[in-house]
Amino acid sequence: MHCICNLYRYDKIKGLPEAFETPGVCSNYSPLYVEKTTKAIKEFKAGGDAVFTLPNSPIKCAGAPQKILYIAEETFRLQGKPANMVYYTALPVIFGVKKYADALWKVVKERGINVNLRHDLIEVKPDTREAIFLNLDTQEKVVQHYDLLHVTPYMNAAPVVRDCKELSNSEGYLEIDKFTLQHVRYPNVFGLGDCTNLPTSKTAAAVAGQFGVLRKNLGAVLDGKPMKGVYDGYTSCPLVTGKNSCILAEFDFSAPPKPLETFPVNQAKERSSMYLMKAHAMPFLYWQGMLRGFWEGPAIFRKAMRLGMSK
Ligand SMILES: Cc1cc2nc3c(=O)[nH]c(=O)nc-3n(C[C@H](O)[C@H](O)[C@H](O)COP(=O)(O)OP(=O)(O)OC[C@H]3O[C@@H](n4cnc5c(N)ncnc54)[C@H](O)[C@@H]3O)c2cc1C
Questions:
Q1: Of 5, 164, 195, 237, which one is the catalytic site residue?
Q2: How far is CA 155 from CA 15, 247, 251, 270, in A?
Q3: Total-model pTM
Q4: Which of 50, 123, 157, 194 is the most exposed place for a label (fewest CB within 10 A)?
């Protein structure tokens, strides 16, 4: 029940499946326990420890573990409940793109959130309400008391792809060319989305960008013509930092990744306009545009807003 297609590996964290049945332990990644998040935030008592995690594996929407951290912190602050806010991430950085990482460090410092880099949740002890983390650099164990624990689980490649050795790479992801989206061994196979080895952040926004390239290239191959579509790694993460603020991170898959922003403003700034877009425009784009095959990402708007001076 805890795993959808064995994709979300709650079972890899000792004691977590049992801990989910106790108050205060939740995960927005689980259809079973997502509703516990709101309850845990509502029932949180002043002076408690609120702990949020990001695991040591590629995950869907790398910003989601932080969004809930900021929403919870704002809620407690507005309710006048002091809280010890702690974020543990297995990553060596707070975010993979420096421009947005700098902005997020400012947010966490201003709000007094404690950030622990390179720490991975390995065990939960619901009886004592303790979360055990492994320091990935020193291999030491760190014990953290929690009153609220929001867990982002390890994530696997989709088993249906992983188990097909001809199509997948050694990590289990569909092995496609990162520019054309054509399979590296089978020219009649194309791929997009979270099941692929594309070296970009796994988001629906990335899927939209990939869709335009795939449509062009698959069509060209079917017509016996050369492929002209080139994926630039576009992905986006609306980093909601509160009930009316959002940093709209948009970036590519350069090494290191570079911002690829749609709007001619500094998108690393927390803005209510970006929050309104995330809350109201994006669901419309998703349901009416993307799922119907009309939305291929914002590249066309980015180019228009920069008077054709951008990719
Ligand atoms: C909590 C959370 C927050 C997120 N926030 C954002 C955000 O703000 N912005 C954003 O752009 N993205 C966000 N994402 C990421 C986004 O949801 C994914 O990147 C996107 O859904 C990927 O689409 P996909 O079709 O590639 O994969 P999926 O959405 O995972 O779809 C794969 C489908 O295949 C099905 N499947 C698997 N195996 C089989 C099989 N053997 N037979 C049949 N069907 C099968 C699965 O059940 C699933 O329905 C978020 C994700 C999560 C979990």
A1: 237
A2: 17, 25, 22, 29
A3: 0.95
A4: 123
Distance of CA 207 from the midpoint of ligand 1 (Å): 10
Out of 61, 164, 195, 246, pick the active-site residue: 61
pLDDT per residue over 92-135, tens digit each?
999 999 999 999 999 999 999 999 999 999 999 999 999 999 99
| Active-site annotation holds for 61 | yes
pLDDT-derived band at 2, boundaries 50, 70, 90: very low
More confident residue, 310 or 183: 183
Whose structure tokens read 């399979």? 183
Q: Does domain 158-311 have CATH number 3.50.50.100?
A: yes
Report whether 114 contacts 124 (CB < 8 A). Answer: no
Please confirm, yes or no, whether 237 is among the known catalytic residues.
yes
One of 3.50.50.60, 3.30.1060.10, 3.40.50.300, 3.40.50.1950 is the CATH number of 8-155, namely 3.50.50.60
- Structure tokens, 263: 């709007």
The CA 155 to ligand 1 mean position distance, Å, reads: 12
Q: How many residues does the chain have?
A: 311
